[in-house]
Every structure is written in C-alpha cells, then in structure tokens.
Design a protein that fits this description.
By secondary structure, the chain is of the alpha+beta class. It has a single domain (11-157), classed as Beta-Lactamase. 34% of the residues lie in helices and 28% in strands. Strands 5-4-3-8-7-6 form a 6-stranded antiparallel beta sheet, with helices on both faces. The N and C termini lie far apart (29 Å). 35% of the residues are buried. The structure holds methionine sulfoxide. Residues 51, 72, 76, 81-84, 104-105, 107, 111, 114, 130, 132 line the site of methionine sulfoxide. Residues 39-152 form the GAF domain. This is GAF domain-containing protein.
C-alpha cells in the first residue's frame, strides 16, 4: 500500500500513483481494458476501500461498469444517490457519512464514506468513478484533488 500523505522529494502519494497509472495505461486505449485496470489499480493501491468502480452513462441512466468489490446495484437514475448526484451535477461528490446523504444507495453495508468523480470528456458525461470506504470521512480534499487527477489521466489515455 502507498501512503497517500507521504511527501518526499516533492512527490506526494498521488504523484506516484499518477506516474504509475500513466505507465499502466500506456499503449492501450480500449475502454473496457483500461477501466478494468484502473479500478483494480485503485482497489489495490488506495488504503481503506471496499469498492472501486465505474457507472457508465447509458441514455441518461447510470449502468454498472468494471469494478472491484462486492456485487452492486446495476442501474442508478441520474439524480439518485451519490453517483446519481455526481452525474446530474457533473460535480465531484465527497461524502463523509453516507448514512447522512439523502437517497444514498447502500450496495454494501460496510460503506461509510464515498467519493464519486464525474467523468467528462469533450463535454460528454461518460459516467462516474465511484470509491467507497468503510471508514467515516475517508476522503479529504487532498484525495478529491488526487483522484480527479487520476480520472483525467484515465480519460486522456482511453478512447471513450
Ligand atoms: N452508494 C452509491 C451506489 C453505488 S455503490 O456504492 C457501489 C450511491 O449512493 O450512489
């Protein structure tokens, strides 16, 4: 596991993850292959996750994509739950306590906090990247910035 707060020689944990992700996705542009690699990479390298994966925009409805973790709900309407809010607003949703989030969809009862990053390429909403943690308030502003950066690397490396 990488200590995401480690700061040595100007490299934070997310600097290292960004370099590793660039290398991992280099030379391949297939969406499913890169999405599967990306969520497996996050799930193995980011501490305290119990779910990491994609919901994809299918005619203004989110449909489950590649993921790591427990089986999950398949379809989520825009505006519903944390993922639906990220899709509807195109704003990252960083939720310290999912039980306090109106309409939160509990796929895994172990989840206590969540970060959902909308994936927008050339003005088109491709879907969302969803990370769940059993720890309350697992994701800080530092994580939001870092994971938004990783999402941009994924989008730039992948044909959507
Ligand atoms: N909790 C999410 C649903 C997806 S699962 O966490 C994998 C939500 O409220 O949108």
């Amino acid at each position: 596991m990488i200590d995401l707060n480690a700061a040595g020689a100007g490299h934070s944990g997310y600097d290292l993850l960004a370099a590793q992700l660039q290398a991992l996705l280099a030379g391949e542009r297939d969406f499913i292959a890169n999405a599967a690699q990306f969520c497996a990479f996050l799930y193995s390298q980011v501490d305290d996750l119990n779910w990491a994966g994609f919901y994809l925009n299918r005619n203004e409805e989110l449909v489950l994509g590649p993921f790591q973790g427990q089986v999950a709900c398949v379809r989520i309407a825009f505006g519903r739950g944390v993922c639906g809010a990220a899709a509807a607003t195109r704003q990252t949703q960083r939720v310290e306590d999912v039980h306090a989030f109106p309409g939160h969809i509990a796929c895994d009862s172990a989840s206590n906090s969540e970060l959902v990053v909308p994936l927008v390429k050339d003005g088109v909403l491709i879907g969302v990247l969803d990370l769940d943690s059993p720890k309350l308030a697992r994701f800080g502003e530092h994580d939001q910035v870092g994971l938004e950066r990783l999402a941009q690397i994924f989008l730039a490396s992948t044909d959507c």
